[in-house]
Amino acid sequence: MYHSRFREQTGPRPGSSGLLRVSIGAVLTIEQVFPNRVCGVLRTQDADAGFQACLAAVEGGVGSLEITTTVPSCFEMIRGLRASTGASYPIGVGTVWDPGAVLEAKEAGAAFVVTPVLLPEVAEACRQHDLLCVLGALTPTEIYQARLAGAQLVKVFPIAPVGGHEYVRALNGPMGGVPMWVSGGVEIADVRGYLQLGVRVVGLTSALFPAEALARRDMDTIRQRAQEVARAAAPD
Q: What is the pTM assigned to this prediction?
C-alpha cells in the first residue's frame, strides 16, 4: 500500500487514452519507455509538491518521469503515480548507486533505472530484473564502457558544462551509433537541437521543475513548461 500522501488522485487520468499502459514484465524498448524522447527528472525534498508536479508534467505532455532516490519516499511516490495515471506513463528511478535498489524499483513498478556514473553492477542487476538500464558516463571511454556493461542508453552527464550541443556533435563522429540520453543543465530551448543531433532522450530537471515553482506549488507553471517541452520534442 503506498503512502496516503501519494494516494490515487481522483478525476480523469491525464492523457491516458493515447499512451502505452506500462506493465511490469519484460524489458521495454527505448521507444516504449520514452515515447516523446523527453523525460522529466524530479529532484526535490518536498515529496508532496513533487508528486503534484509530476502529474502536472504529464498533463502538459511530458511522456516519461524519473524520480531520483534523493526524493523522500521515492518508491512510494512511483506507486502512487502509477495508480493515479493508470500506469499510462513510464516512470523510472534515478540517482541509483546501489544494485539493491534495482529490485526495489522493480517492485514499485519502475520501467527503467538511471545511474549518475558508470556502475556495471547496477547494469547487471537491471538485466536480472528486466529493467531498461541507463548508465551515467561522460568521456568517450566511459560511454564505451557503459555500453559494454549492458546499458541500453548511456546518460551523458552533465552535458551543459562540457559543451552541450558541440560535445554531442564531437561524440557523433566516432560514437554516432551509441544511444545517448543527455541531461545536466539542459534548458527547454536546447531540446530540439539535441534531438536533431540524434540524441535519443533529453532529461530536464530544473528547466521543467523550477525550485521556486515547487516551493510555491505553482503547478500551472510546471504544466506550461511541460507543454513547451512537448512542442520542442515534437517531430518536424
A: 0.91
